[in-house]
Amino acid sequence: MNQSLLLRVRIVGSLLCLLSAVPALAETIEGFVEFHGLVPPQERLRRESDKFCAKKPALDPSVRVNANRLKDVWVRITKGAPEQLGGPERAVSIKQTECMYEPHVAAIQAGNRVIIENADPVLHNVHAYAGATTLFNRAMPGPGVITIDGSTAQATSRWNGVVRWKCDVHGWMTGFVGVSRNPYFAVSSDNGEFKIENVPPGKYSIAAWHEKFGEKAVEVSVEPGQTARVVFYYGQKLSESGTH
Description:
single chain; mainly beta; Immunoglobulin-like; 2 domains; 4-stranded mixed beta sheet; 19 strands; 47% strand
């Protein structure tokens, strides 16, 4: 092989290596959840039935608004992205601590691992529901951990939508996990913000869910090299959401 041809082969090989190292275009959908109108007060929970739980006052976590921004809203792509199961290498941890579930709202991709810990020195049970159907009911008599993944009888790969946790021993203890059938989801933070990363360019339906205020949806276009911005609105006389 002459030197000129050898040089061309090396150049083409180098270009192929560079191209294979360049990731596919992936952008970000970000935004926030606004709440307008009278904010429901956070009521103090009645926890006197258990001496340990009663040691520390606690407020109902279902509606938390900070500067007109709503926390604990599950946001995800519902249309436009192919179904894709996750794996157990990604996990979300749910802790029963001071007789509450933390975080109150979490999110996973179907197939991810869920780790549930009892950090309290009292009996809790994790009663998980999909709608009115019981998925599992596990007692946790004191500190310990249970893990749910593909190696267990109740695999998260079969879950979809909202799964609600409940402790039958302490009726005020509830929590939620939003289960997506693709990797594009988030939960709004203390300041109501959310970010969904690594989204390929395209047109999508985005939905937001809140345990008290229900679900809203909006269409969004993700353009190459641009961040798509979405605002969801909850509250009095506000039913529309929008993109920016």
